[in-house]
Amino acid sequence: MPEYHTVEYWNALKKIYYLENQIAESGNDRYPNKKEMDIASMKHDCYKSGNILLVYLMIIPASVFGHYYKKALVVTNDSSNLTGYVEMVSESKLSVQVHFKIRPDDSENLSVPVDDISYVLFTDDSSEYHRVKYTRRTDSTKTVEYRLAKKLLGGYADLFKLQLPGNEINIVFEHYNTYAYIVKIDTSYYTMDMQEKLEGTRYTIRKGYVGVLKRLFMNDRKQLKNIEKIKMMDAKIIPLFDGLNRAHPDINRKVYCVKERRLLYHSVYANAGITTGFDNVYFPGIEAGYAMKINRPELSRKVYFEAGASMIKWFITEDARYAYRDTSYSITVLKLSTNALYYFNNRTIAPFAGFGGAFVIGTEGLGLHLKEIIGCTVNGRYSVALNAEHLSLKTVMFSISLGFTFNPSQQ
């Protein structure tokens, strides 16, 4: 995970390099002069801030990574069945590689190539992921490869939805452009996708799915009139092909679509911590707030985005009032924050790490803070976290927070 620091941190480093260059030009003295002592003090300040995320990632056991397995049945091309657990971090990751375990706690997994799989059935929601032929176009090149895609409809036309890996996604304006549809009729596969490109100020969009729709509905004049206006999204594509299957009653039709809905979590939390400056001045503070967390499981079950609001109250000690030349005995501020969180697994005890920013409004004015978070959840409901919030280069608030998350709602 990338390391970051505050703007003040980088400004301090620039000053260090400037002073070091001045010393190098004037030659080294036998005893440290004031400039050298200033440099040593500032370096101490910078390094003392540390990065709790880096330390956390160094001490966390490797065994907690990647544990997102769901009970499933894997049917291979020779019709043999593998019953066990399949890693399901995201649909895009599943589409190119299947990791299988007989038991969820097995230390080793079996990597099954997509070419050898007929389909994967997840037993908890009955969702099916079938091997399909995907035609990928990049500029003037075209490649055909096998992928696993979620089955949405069955009948005269089988409809599948293929979530694309991050390196194959190029979003400019169409925020939902993270997937492609695959249509299978008899033994033929048709790829329906959309590609955006922005070169300088020139924007182009290739709606490949429109050409496929015109070909498949060429005998339906009513649909042909509206095809140009159809957006490439489930709410439009699924009813269109369900109608096509209904027009062929001689072939059994079935609706498979189990939509991966966005999960929205609501939580309340309370913090108690201590704020410290590098001049060894400490003062306590408390915080209480509400946070809203969202996850898009079709893209990744590990990454969450959080936004919240809270109230903080700092109790200013006598030493702090003297050091900061402040006569206040307490300060109350409103904090609006956003965080990005990464969960390492979905076990009973699930560790996580993240970073974010906060906009603070108080009687002292406005401020922008940077924040690092490490912690864990228990049963997905209770959480404990250690926070390091950088109020400035020389002031960091360390706090421990306890939180409770309500049952998620689907969006």
In words, what does this structure look like?
The chain is of the alpha+beta class and 411 residues long. It folds into 3 domains: 7-48; 65-255, no CATH class; 261-410, Beta Barrel (Porin). The protein has 8 helices and 22 strands. The strands form 3 sheets. Strands 1, 2, 3, 4, 5, 6, 7, 8, 9, 10 and 13 form an 11-stranded antiparallel β-sheet that branches. The relative contact order is 0.11.
Short description:
The protein contains eight helices and 22 strands.
The helix tally amounts to 8
Instruction: Profile the largest sheet.
Output: 11 strands, antiparallel
Low-confidence segments? 1-10, 28-32, 34-50
How many β strands by DSSP? 22
Q: Give the overall form.
A: elongated
State the order of secondary-structure elements, H for helix, E for strand: HHHEEHEEEEEEEEEEHHHEEEEHEEEEEE
**Overall pLDDT confidence:** 78
SS strand fraction? over 45%
Helix content: 10-25%
The helix-and-strand class reads alpha+beta
Total number of distinct structural domains = 3
Radius of gyration: 28 Å
Distance between the termini: 29 Å
